[in-house]
DNA sequence: TTGAAAGCGTTACCAA
DNA sequence: TTGGTAACGCTTTCAA
C-alpha cells in the first residue's frame, strides 16, 4: 500500500501551508482564487481523501447523529429512517444507524458506541432503557430524542403516540360495533406491542369481556405467515367474532387464514390491523387498520434535534403526541374511535 | 459542559499509566487482575466513554464497513442490510450505511465520505458508477463488493443476478404459456429495473411480438398505488393478455386495478411480479413472481468481504451469480423458466 | 506485566 | 488572506 496521502502532501505539492489547504477544503471562499486552484489541482493529482478521524479529533465535532432502531427489517422503521436521512443529510450531518435487535442490553452497547463516536444527538426508538443507558444519555449533554411511544419521564424530547390508548381504542371500536368475543393476535413481545396489548386487555376488562382464550401469540418476529399460524390457534377454542392484530402483517396473514378456512371477512369475523401499511388498502378485502405516522415522526424528531443543536441548548424537554387514526375499510364494519378518555 | 473525561483521567484515578488503561479496555486479560479492577471502577465512577476518533486516528483502523444502497425505503434493501449487520456486528465491525438516492453523483459523494472514514471495505448496490467513483474505489486498495447485478468488469468481488436474463426469462415464460400481447409495467428507472426491461424487450423482439403500446411506466418510486395507476394506462390501448411487472409492489397494485375494472386474474389477464416479497404468497389471487435472494446476497457479500479482510489480500476479483427462480402461483397459469440460453 | 515517548492527521488559536 | 504552533485523545513502538 503506497504511503497514505495527507494534508501535508497536498500542501507541499501546492506550495502552501497545511492549514491553508484545510481551509480551502472546508471554506473555499476564504482562500484566494490562485491558491485555491493550486490546492484543487494538488488534491486531484494525489487523489487526496481527508481523514475524518483526524478531523473529528481536532475539531471535537463529529457531524454525526446517532440513531438506534430495534430492527432494520420492518418497513415501519425504514420509513422513519428515510425521514431522518432526508432531514439530516442536506444540512451536513451523517446518520449512524445502530440496530438494537429489540434488546435493552444491545441498546446500551449501541449508546456506548454512539457516544464513543461523539455523535451530536441521539434518536432512539422507545422509552424504556436500562438504568445505565439513561445515565449515559443524561450525562452526555447532547440532545436525546425518544420516539414511537410516550414517556412518563422523557430524557429529552419525546415524540410518539400513546400505544396503550391506541390498543384500547382499537379494541373499544370493535366492542362498540357490537362484538363480544374480540380476539387478539400478537407475535414477538416488543415494548410497543406490549403496550398495545395492555390497551386491549383494559378495554376488554372495562367491558367485562376479558378471557385469556381470546388472546393468541407466538414468540416470532412479525410476518404475514405468522399471522396465519397464530390465527389457526383459534381452531381449538373456537373463533372470535372480531380480532385486533398487533400489526398489519399479522392481520393480513390472519385474514388469509380465515378465508382459507371458509370464514367470511367481515361477515363471520372482523379483522383490524395496526400501522396502516401500504398493502392494507390493497388487500382483498381491504384491511381496516390504525394509521400511525412513522415518516412524520422521523421528520419531527430530526427537526427537533436540529433545533436543539442550533440553539446550542443541549437538552430541552418536551413531549409531542403525534396521535393515530382509525382507518375503516372492508375487513370491519364502519366504526369510529371513541372520543378522548 | 463539565470537562470531558479522557483516558488520562481514568489513569490518574486508578493510579496507573494511560497505556495500561488502554490495554485493560481492549484486552483485559493482558492486565493483572488488580489493576483491571481499579481501572474498571475508575471507568464506571467517571462514566468514561472512549473517543473513537482518537482511537481510529492512532491505530489507523476504523473497524467500519461502508455500505451504499440506493434507498432505505424498499424492503429488498432492508433484508440485505439486515444480513450485512448480522455478519459484521458479531465480529466487531461497525456498518456505516449511506443512501445514494439512486444517483451516481450521490454515490460518488458516498464513496468519498466512506473512504474519508477509512472504512475497511465497501459494499455497494449496482455495478455502474461514475469514472471517478471507479477510480476512487480501485485506488482505495480495500475490498470492494458490488451487488444485485452482474458486472462486465467487476472492481473487486461481484455478487448478484443477471437482471437482463431474469427479465428475459420472465417474459419468455409468459410467451411460452401462449400469450401474445404481453405487457410490461415499470416505475422509476433504476439500473436493475432498466436491465429487466431490456430483458423484456429482447424476449418480445425474439418472439416477434414487440410493441411500444404494451409498455407502460411512470417516473415515480415503486408502490402498490403506482401499480394501479400505471395499469390503468392500458384503458386507452386495450389491456394485454399478460403483464410482467418490474416488482411485486407494482404487480399487486396492477392486479387490484384489474379486478376493480372487472378483469379476472388470471383468466382475463395474467400477472407476474418480481422479487417475491412476502405478501405475494398472501395476495388473492396469490401472485406469481421471480424470487431473488436478497438476504443470502447480503450474507455472501459480507462473508466475502471478511474473507478478503482476513487474508489481508485487499482486492480479490470474482463474480458470483446467485440466480433467481420463477415461483408460479394463482396469478398466472403453470409455467416454467426456459432452460439456459 | 507495565510504562515513557512519539506520533496519528487534522483544526484552533494567535500572529503576521 | 496566510502561516506557525500547539493541541485533540488515543495507540504504537521500544524499554524496563
Overall average pLDDT of chain A: 93
Query: What count of domains describes the coordinates of chain A?
Result: 3
Helix content of chain A: 40-55%
| N-to-C span of chain A | 68 Å
What are the low-pLDDT stretches of chain A, counting only 5+ consecutive residues below 50? none
Oligomer: homodimer
Instruction: Please count the helical segments of chain A.
Output: 13
Strand order of the largest sheet of chain A: 2-1-3-4-5-11
Number of strands of chain A: 12
* Shape estimate of chain A: elongated
Plain-language structure description:
The structure is a homodimer. Chain A is an alpha/beta fold and about 350 residues long. Chain A folds into 3 domains: about 5-60, 434 Repressor (Amino-terminal Domain); about 65-160 and about 295-325, Rossmann fold (3-Layer(aba) Sandwich); about 165-290, Rossmann fold (3-Layer(aba) Sandwich), CATH 3.40.50. The first copy, chain A, is built from 13 helices and 12 strands. The first copy, chain A, has helices at about 5-15, 20-25, 35-45, 50-60, 75-90, 105-115, 130-140, 165-175, 190-205, 225-230, 235, 250-260, 295-310; strands at about 65-70, 95-100, 120-125, 145-150, 155-160, 180-185, 215, 240-245, 270, 290, 320, 325. In chain A, strands 2-1-3-4-5-11 form a 6-stranded parallel beta sheet, sandwiched between helices. In chain A, strands 7-6-8-9 form a 4-stranded parallel beta sheet, sandwiched between helices. Chain A has a two-stranded antiparallel sheet with strand order 10-12. In chain A, helix 1 (about 5-15) crosses helix 2 (about 20-25) and helix 10 packs across helix 12. The mean pLDDT of chain A is about 95. Chains A and B meet through helix 4, helix 5, strand 2, helix 6 and helix 7 of A and helix 4, helix 5, strand 2, helix 6 and helix 7 of B.
Amino acid at each position: 500500500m503506497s504511503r497514505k496521502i495527507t494534508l501535508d502532501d497536498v500542501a507541499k505539492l501546492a506550495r502552501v501551508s497545511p492549514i491553508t489547504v484545510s481551509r480551502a477544503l472546508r471554506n473555499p471562499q476564504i482562500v484566494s482564487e490562485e491558491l485555491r486552484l493550486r490546492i484543487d489541482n494538488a488534491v486531484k493529482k494525489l487523489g487526496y481523501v481527508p481523514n475524518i478521524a483526524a478531523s473529528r479529533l481536532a475539531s471535537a465535532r463529529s457531524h454525526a447523529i446517532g440513531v438506534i432502531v430495534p430492527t432494520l427489517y420492518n418497513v415501519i422503521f425504514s420509513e422513519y429512517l428515510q425521514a431522518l436521512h432526508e432531514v439530516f443529510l442536506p444540512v451536513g450531518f451523517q446518520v449512524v444507524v445502530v440496530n438494537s435487535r429489540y434488546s435493552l442490553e444491545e441498546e446500551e452497547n449501541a449508546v456506548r458506541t454512539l457516544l464513543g463516536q461523539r455523535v451530536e444527538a441521539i434518536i432512539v426508538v422507545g422509552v424504556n432503557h436500562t438504568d445505565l443507558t439513561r445515565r449515559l444519555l443524561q450525562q452526555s449533554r447532547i440532545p436525546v430524542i425518544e420516539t414511537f411511544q410516550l414517556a412518563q419521564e422523557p430524557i429529552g424530547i419525546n415524540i410518539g403516540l400513546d400505544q396503550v390508548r391506541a390498543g384500547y381504542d382499537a379494541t373499544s371500536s370493535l366492542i362498540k360495533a357490537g362484538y363480544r368475543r374480540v380476539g387478539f393476535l400478537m407475535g414477538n413481545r416488543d415494548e410497543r406491542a406490549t403496550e398495545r396489548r395492555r390497551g386491549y386487555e383494559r378495554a376488554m376488562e372495562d367491558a367485562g369481556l376479558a378471557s385469556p382464550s381470546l388472546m393468541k401469540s407466538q414468540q416470532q418476529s412479525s410476518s404475514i405467515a405468522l399471522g396465519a399460524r397464530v390465527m389457526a390457534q383459534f381452531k381449538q377454542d373456537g373463533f372470535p367474532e372480531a380480532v385486533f392484530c398487533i400489526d398489519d402483517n399479522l392481520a393480513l396473514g390472519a385474514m388469509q387464514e380465515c378465508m382459507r378456512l371458509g370464514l367470511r371477512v367481515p361477515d363471520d369475523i372482523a379483522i383490524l390491523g395496526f400501522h396502516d401499511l401500504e398493502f392494507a388498502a390493497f388487500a382483498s378485502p381491504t384491511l381496516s387498520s390504525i394509521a400511525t405516522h412513522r415518516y412524520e415522526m422521523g421528520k419531527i424528531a430530526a427537526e427537533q434535534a436540529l433545533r436543539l443543536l442550533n440553539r446550542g441548548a443541549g437538552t430541552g424537554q418536551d413531549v409531542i403526541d403525534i396521535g393515530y387514526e382509525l382507518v375503516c375499510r372492508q375487513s370491519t364494519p364502519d366504526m369510529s374511535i371513541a372520543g378522548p378518555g
